[in-house]
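ESCALATION

Customer reports they have been waiting on this structure for their group meeting. Please prioritize. Original submission:
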Amino acid sequence: MSALRKVVSGAQPGVDRAALDAALDLGLEAGGWVPKGRKADDGPVSSRYAVLETPSRDDGQGAEWNVRDTDATLVLATGRLMGAAETAVEQAHKFEKPLLVVDLLQPRNLGSILYWLEYQKVSVLNVCGPRESEVPGIRAIAMEFLKDLLMAAKEPSNS
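Update from on-call: job pushed to the front of the queue and completed.
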């Protein structure tokens, strides 16, 4: 298996932005599809993020294309799925792509998530979840989790 090399998201403030920042902080590639005009809840997406614009201003198209163009999707949740995370789940089924939903409020086993990434041979991972406006404080929770996960996932396995 090749190690994880790229993280993709829709760059909205919250889980998406945490995914891109964690990837960049750890030296991984980061990108994804965002709505036309680089539209995000907090204004235009910063040029720090190498994201591409969809032809539409609709968030759903970016969520769909991020699933389509990656090896697998990791949804970070806090209970009920909503918005782009819900769309990503639907699109993962549509495109028959591997999908894992992790509830950040529950105890989690990092080893099982790493096993899933290895088993699915994921080198490009789509990450999505709630926006900061939906779940205040989610960015910090997601960032802590993702830094641990991505650090371990980018290192080649010794097996």
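Sent to customer with the following note: Residues 25 and 98 are 25 Å apart (CA to CA).
Escalation resolved.
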